Amino acid sequence: xxxxxxxxxxxxxxxxxxxxxxxxxxxxxxxxxxxxxxxxxxxxxxxxxxxxxxxxxxxxxxxxxxxxxxxxxxxxxxxxxxxxxxxxxxxxxxxxxxxxxxxxxxxxxxxxxxxxxxxxxxxxxxxxxxxxxxxxxxxxxxxxxxxxxxxxxxxxxxxxxxxxxxxxxxxxxxxxxxxxxxxxxxxxxxxxxxxxxxxxxxxxxxxxxxxxxxxxxxxxxxxxxxxxxxxxxxxxxxxxxxxxxxxxxxxxxxxxxxxxxxxxxxxxxxxxxxxxxxxxxxxxxxxxxxxxxxxxxxxxxxxxxxxxxxxxxxxxxxxxxxxxxxxxxxxxxxxxxxxxxxxxxxxxxxxxxxxxxxxxxxxxxxxxxxxxxxxxxxxxxxxxxxxxxxxxxxxxxxxxxxxxxxxxxxxxxxxxxxxxxxxxxxxxxxxxxxxxxxxxxxxxxxxxxxxxxxxxxxxxxxxxxxxxxx
Length: 470
Hints:
Layout: H1 3-7, H2 11-19, H3 25-43, E1 46-49, H4 51-67, E2 78-82, H5 109-116, E3 120-125, E4 137-138, E5 142-143, H6 159-166, E6 172-177, H7 183-189, E7 192-195, E8 215-220, H8 223-233, E9 263-266, H9 277-293, E10 296-299, H10 307-329, H11 336-346, H12 350-373, E11 376-380, E12 396-397, E13 400-401, H13 410-418, E14 422-429, E15 435-441, H14 447-461
Helix pairs in contact: 3-4, 8-14, 9-14, 10-11, 10-12, 10-13
């Protein structure tokens, strides 16, 4: 078996091989385990491995494949789960020494749905402490490196997930996205990261069933793989009232579409954000590509006034609730940026939080009107290319100082604030060979529409085929 060829295939191709009985689930597992053995020690993406569990799952998948008939969508596919997602019987640390030995008795919904769909769990992927920040490191497992240049970061917080997919250690990976955590690492690793609409994959368990800024979603090699993941995991859950009442099967539809004269707004900097010139240069051809596809491309910038302030306040309020008491009990257990975010949140007044909610509403309404005119918004996923792994976060971009550890990924978190579905798709490389992603944003709850637009761009460029040298 040609391991390099097999693990480099799209998840949809691996699934097809399994169904045609060209490869067994155990053989596919062994190929991925071999890749993990070869690659993971130097990149540190998968931090808790579960080979025995995976083999039992693969053997069960082979029994199902032998019986034939209708099979769950992910039958036999090797997957990895972000270490912020609870996994029954598997250590889940949240990247925190406080939870260094925590073994849940339940699965997060996104994990359970993958397993119900026949997926084979390979293990857990690295994340910054409690998913805070967009650079993947923690005191429990150390840092994760970018396969395109191990001296650079893969971003985060789903950095381990992105590296696992980019290197063929897993067919699919799950993650979460509050400010950038699916899209940023996808951009940094030449993979696809999809932030679904809030409630598309309900986030359970949750201490706030109305929470809509953080969502669960996938990282994969291609848009087709994202659609497969969504078809298997999307759908409502009665425990989460913001659940979208549509089944995952809406994603099991053809992705090809006619985009002739469909309006799309081309944004160089999301209304004036500082963008590294290397990103602007790498993305420049993407505008012409969209036009060649048939889109009516118009240079236009949405009005993002107040968005960063609102995001900062609302994030601070969440951190005050989540970490205020924990930090008082054990202040040394949490990294400085969590302290800073929490202390800021604890100092907020009810009036400030109320104003932030009003501003968020105004931003959402302005984006809705903007997309009434332009069906999509295309913009840089990240303001910078991958940066050295020794740097926690960029302190300035294009000469503009960053106000805190989240400011550098405003091109993503402003979109999070709107609640709109968004995807990062491979779009190009800097002169020194580092990946850059294009972000495509769609209308409210138009998740399938976003995947179709991203698929058209992917097929026109095929940038995803370029893989890192392992």
